[in-house]
Specification:
Layout (H helix, E strand, L loop, with lengths): L8 H9 L8 H9 L4 E4 L8 H9 L3 E5 L3 H14 L6 E4 L5 H13 L4 E4 L1 H4 L2 H7 L4 E6 L19 H8 L4 E5 L4 H10 L6 E4 L7 E7 L3 H11 L4 E6 L2 H13 L4 E4 L5 H12 L5 E5 L11 E6 L6 H8 L9 E7 L1 H11 L4 H19 L4 H8 L13 H4 L4 E3 L1 H13 L6 H9 L4 H5 L16 H13 L3 E4 L5 E4 L1 H8 L5 E3 L25 H18 L3 H4 L2 H10 L4 H4 L7 H22 L18 H10 L4 H7 L4 H13 L7 H7 L2 H14 L5 H8 L6 H16 L1
Parallel strand pairs: 1-6, 1-7, 2-4, 2-5, 3-4, 5-6, 8-13, 9-11, 9-12, 10-11, 12-13
Antiparallel strand pairs: 14-17, 15-16
Length: 731
């Protein structure tokens, strides 16, 4: 049936979706589609793009074919539409996840005219049998969601998208509505040209999302920072993006063992698990989803309160779309990105095997990302300018650069020094080599090429190489220097660079560049927090307590907790058994056995002294419970020879014993009798055991060897017996 012109769109909106008013330009867009015109919609995430094709699809005769790249989003939207309708057949999706029986049901509903919306993935649309079938269907219009996938300059280019126009011509020509949340003017033109809709009416909403707060942080102990942030925003929903599947799994696991309800989500997981994890997030059974940037999630959740990028995206379009998933209901949305230049270099390496044209595009997109990350300009102003929109306020009051302006200083002479050095080496070397020359480092490469003889050698020795690398990046961002990715990252001057040398002008550099640091806790965010000072008064109290507990249990003090564990307690102030498990050398077993008395004493001390505890340091490392240690425990349970375990793990015996000691000291009980009995006779075992039980004042191996005789026992013997002793009596 056609739409009755007497029924207003507002009434249809209320009847079909329960809304009493349109947002922004939605009504104008819908009218344009209803009139059979091609339509291009550029509307930021959260603006209500999907309604622009869903409502006309329900009102027009025939079936709207909606092309979407995200299987998860298709299911999500079909479920939402069915919730408003009495008939499930009103909307279907057709993709690789369906069984033959399900596909047959979809086809029946389509041919009967029940279905007003059919969601298809571009891969499904291009299959010959689907094209043949769809020619029998009356198509009201085509909606192309995530249309930026058409453009090689877009952040999520998919070759199948460039074939859509040809398929439309085969299935049957009908009006097109193309929709995207992110497109620069260049990408927009590319989309319209490819779809043959250069005459389409364009509806462009503002890219400004005033409720979103943007911040870039140096990537130093990022996992620890993330845990601290989430715990300070307890109960709020958030998404964390990582570049690799491995990092997604690692970080999700780290969050979970630190008491955060987090789940992973990436393309390498089986679809059932992925769907279950998404549903858990939507149903608020999990607070945080950790996902890969490469895999679009299509999560339609209005109350995501934070989006964190553990790794910076490959383009500003990607960044804008992913951050746009925060605060879609107009409420709070914090967008925090951890950045270091090393991650950009990794992305550049991935590009080296690609076609030159692709490299060129990728290089430009990365340069824009670096410029944004290292800029001192208002983040909002920078983003909007990138998308061809002007932002006239000087201070948005909702980004790090506006709230905490970076200091600048005149850097003209430093830029000139960099440019002259690049020319002095005939534009045939990388940034690191240029920095080595300027700082006066006599590396092998510098000396081999005789660059220590250059006039510029050592001219910037008063500053570190990371400062000069930041200056080089500023010169690249300002297009004075070009980096040849396809040519091993060699630097050369651009035309503007030569002009700058001929006519130098003022060049303001940003102070405190911190984007080259390595993250000492990159893998799991736990470095034990050894940067603070141990509370010596508390340490003395804990040592006294340890003496009392050891007397009560008739055990040497080191069996209860070793000195490094007490020092960590005097640094982190754990006040519960749960927090005690985060202390170095204290696992679940030890925390449960001895932790409460120590936690109670620490709590009383903290309350009395009114100490503000460094909660950000209490981050439990996933490594303690994973990988090598778990495998060692399993191998010992199977009574494998320690020599075989060491060989399998590519460890020396002393390294394996160190791992086993860490396991036992953390409270896990291990039975090594099967191995010890084969190399140390019973009498000698008893002698060492009694020494640790009755005589030893500390756990020192050296003291044990001095007492028991180095001629009679090896260091390995003593270590094995100490492991047996602590495991049996302490755990």
């Amino acid at each position: 049936m056609g739409i009755n012109s007497e029924i207003s769109l507002i009434e249809s909106l209320k009847t079909n979706f329960g809304f009493s008013a349109f947002k922004g330009t939605q009504e104008d867009i819908i009218r344009n589609v209803m009139e059979g015109n091609d339509t291009f919609v550029l509307m930021p995430t959260g603006g209500g793009k999907s309604l622009c094709y869903q409502l006309p699809a329900l009102l027009l005769e025939g079936t709207a074919i909606i092309i979407s790249p995200l299987i998860a989003l298709m299911k999500n939207q079909v479920d939402a539409i069915r919730a408003f309708s009495a008939d499930d057949g009103v909307a279907h999706f057709m993709n690789s996840s369906l069984t033959k029986a399900a596909i047959q049901k979809v086809k029946e509903d389509l041919l009967s005219g029940k279905t007003r919306m059919l969601y298809v993935a571009p891969e499904s649309l291009t299959k010959a049998e689907n094209v043949e079938f769809l020619r029998q269907v009356r198509v009201s219009f085509y909606a192309i969601d995530e249309a930026h996938c058409i453009s090689e300059w877009g952040h999520d280019f998919r070759p199948e998208y460039r074939r859509i126009r040809a398929i439309i011509n085969e299935v049957g020509v009908a009006p097109i509505i193309a929709l995207t949340a992110t497109a620069t003017p260049k990408v927009q033109h590319d989309i319209q040209k490819n779809l043959g809709m250069l005459d389409a009416k364009v509806f462009k909403s503002s890219f400004n999302r005033p409720n979103l707060y943007y911040e870039i942080r140096p990537k130093v102990q990022a996992a620890k920072e993330i845990i601290k942030f989430i715990k300070n925003n307890s109960g709020k929903s958030g998404i964390i993006y990582c570049l690799s599947r491995k990092k997604v799994e690692e970080l999700a696991q780290t969050l979970v063992i630190n008491g955060i309800r987090a789940l992973p989500y990436h393309a390498g997981m089986d679809s059932a698990t992925r769907s279950a994890n998404q549903d858990s997030f939507l149903m608020e059974e999990a607070d945080v989803i950790v996902a890969t940037i490469a895999f679009g999630m299509g999560i339609d959740k209005p109350d995501v309160r934070f989006v964190i990028h553990y790794d910076i995206p490959k383009s500003l379009e990607g960044y804008y779309q992913e951050t746009g998933r925060a605060g879609r209901d107009g409420g709070e949305g914090k967008c925090i990105t951890f950045y270091r230049y090393k991650d950009i270099q990794k992305l550049e390496k991935f590009m080296q095997n690609k076609h030159i044209a692709e490299q060129e595009i990728g290089k430009q997109l990365l340069l824009e990302t670096v410029a944004y990350a290292e800029s001192a300009v208002c983040r909002r102003k920078h983003l909007l300018h990138y998308f061809g929109e002007e932002y006239h306020d000087d201070n948005c009051e909702n980004c790090d650069n506006c709230n905490h302006p970076k200091k600048k200083f005149e850097g003209k002479e430093d830029i000139l020094l960099v440019l002259h050095t690049v020319l002095a080496v005939k534009e045939k070397f990388k940034a690191e080599h240029i920095a080595d020359i300027i700082t006066g480092k006599k590396t092998q490469a510098v000396q081999t090429y005789g660059h220590n003889e250059l006039e510029v050698f050592g001219r910037g020795a008063e500053k570190q190489d990371k400062y000069w690398l930041a200056v080089i990046r500023q010169a690249m961002i300002s297009r004075l220097i070009v980096k040849e990715i396809e040519n091993y990252g060699l630097l050369r001057l651009s035309e503007e660079g030569h002009e700058f040398i001929a006519k130098p002008t003022s060049f303001m550099l940003i102070e405190e560049q911190e984007y080259d640091y390595n993250d000492p806790a990159d893998s799991n965010g736990s470095d034990g927090g050894k940067t603070s000072t141990v509370d010596l008064e508390l340490l003395a109290v804990l040592k006294d307590l340890r003496k009392k507990v050891s007397k009560k249990h008739n055990l040497p003090p080191f069996v209860i907790f070793q000195d490094p564990s007490l020092e960590d307690m005097a640094l982190q102030y754990p006040v519960s058994i749960e927090e005690m498990q985060n202390i170095a050398g204290v696992g679940t077993g030890k925390a449960k056995k001895y932790g409460k008395e120590f936690a109670d004493v620490i709590k009383a001390y903290v309350d009395e002294k009114e100490i503000i505890r460094p909660q950000d340091m209490i981050v439990k490392s996933v490594v303690n419970k994973s990988g090598v240690k778990v495998s060692i425990i399993q191998s010992i349970d199977r009574k494998m020879s320690l020599d075989d375990i060491a060989a399998a793990k590519k460890l020396e015996m002393y390294e394996l014993l160190t791992e086993i000691e860490a396991i036992v000291n953390s409270g896990t009980k291990l039975n090594l009798d099967y191995y010890i009995d084969g190399i140390i006779d019973e009498e000698r075992q008893s002698e060492v055991y009694e020494y640790f039980r009755e005589e030893a004042e500390t756990e020192s191996i050296e003291e044990a060897l001095a007492e028991l005789g180095e001629d009679d026992y090896s260091e390995e013997d003593i270590r094995l017996m100490r492991i047996k002793f602590i495991s049996e009596l302490g755990n």
